[in-house]
Amino acid sequence: MEIVTARLTLRRPAPADTDAIFAIHHDPQACLHNPSDLLATRADADDLFRRWDEHWRRHSFGYWVVRNRETGAIVGFSGVKVVRFRDREVLNLFYRFAPHAWGNGFATEVATAIVVWAGENLPDWTILARVRPQNHASQKVALNAGLTRAPHLDEPGEDGPDQMYTMRW
Ligand SMILES: CC(C)(COP(=O)(O)OP(=O)(O)OC[C@H]1O[C@@H](n2cnc3c(N)ncnc32)[C@H](O)[C@@H]1OP(=O)(O)O)[C@@H](O)C(=O)NCCC(=O)NCCS
Question: What's the 3 CA to ligand 1 centre distance in angstroms?
Answer without folding.
Answer: 21
